[in-house]
Design brief:
Elements: H1 2-5, H2 9-23, H3 28-37, H4 41-53, H5 75-83
Helix pairs in contact: 3-4
Length: 88
């Protein structure tokens, strides 16, 4: 996320792919965060779905996580919260 925020896109891409590979897909919530920060909504929601399927303990933070603010205007965000039985 830091590389992306610094505009270092090649390094950002490499670091994210390395993190996904090294974590064997277990850091699903964190990967969703990274894609959200990058503005890649579809991938952010894909990884949130993975986090839900894997029962990621980090999902309890979803409503208070400011790095997901850009997703809140997307109807999929409300649908995801509903799926988790959380209020909007």
């Amino acid at each position: 996320m830091t590389y992306h925020m610094l505009g270092r896109d090649n390094e950002s891409d490499s670091a994210l792919q390395r993190a996904i590979k090294d974590s064997a897909g277990t850091l699903t919530f964190e990967t969703a965060l990274a894609y959200s920060v990058r503005g890649e909504r579809d991938l952010a929601f894909d990884w949130l779905d993975r986090a839900y399927q894997q029962k990621s303990p980090a999902l309890y933070k979803i409503k208070g996580e400011p790095l997901f603010n850009d997703l809140k205007s997307d109807p999929r965000y409300a649908a995801f919260l509903k799926r988790m039985n959380l209020p909007l």
